[in-house]
Amino acid sequence: MQHVMNTSEISNEIRKLCVIERLNIITDVWDEIKESKALEPISDEEKRLLLSRLADYRANPQSATDWTELKKEVYDKCKQKLCQIL
Questions:
Q1: Cα angle vertex 74, ends 42, 61, to 5°?
Q2: pTM above 0.70, yes or no
Q3: What is the pLDDT of residue 42?
Q4: Could you give the CA distance from residue 20 to residue 14 in angstroms, rounded to a whole number?
Q5: pLDDT score of 13
Q6: Which positions of the chain have pLDDT values less than 50?
Q7: CA distances from 14 to 24, 31, 74 (A)
Q8: DSSP letters along 12-74, please?
Q9: CA 81 to CA 86: how far, in whole Å?
Q10: What are the distances in angstroms from CA 10 to CA 4, 7, 77?
């Protein structure tokens, strides 16, 4: 009988991956969510958190980091570390 992992086990296994692999998973999941037409409703607590973060961003938009820039920065750092190892 095949074992089916629960979300906690999946998260633990993902944490074992290198940063680039985790970023690829994040990107794939985000793209799938973005394309999904059936988004789950969010709780009042999640709404408050999102509104708080949005207010922080609107008060200080220059503090935000563009996803493309952040991803490139992380990839570059990983590439440097990989080159040091090899």
A1: 55
A2: no
A3: 86
A4: 11
A5: 92
A6: none
A7: 11, 18, 17
A8: HHHHTS-HHHHHHHHHHHHHHHHH-S-PPP--HHHHHHHHHHHHHHHH-GGG---HHHHHHHH
A9: 9
A10: 10, 5, 26
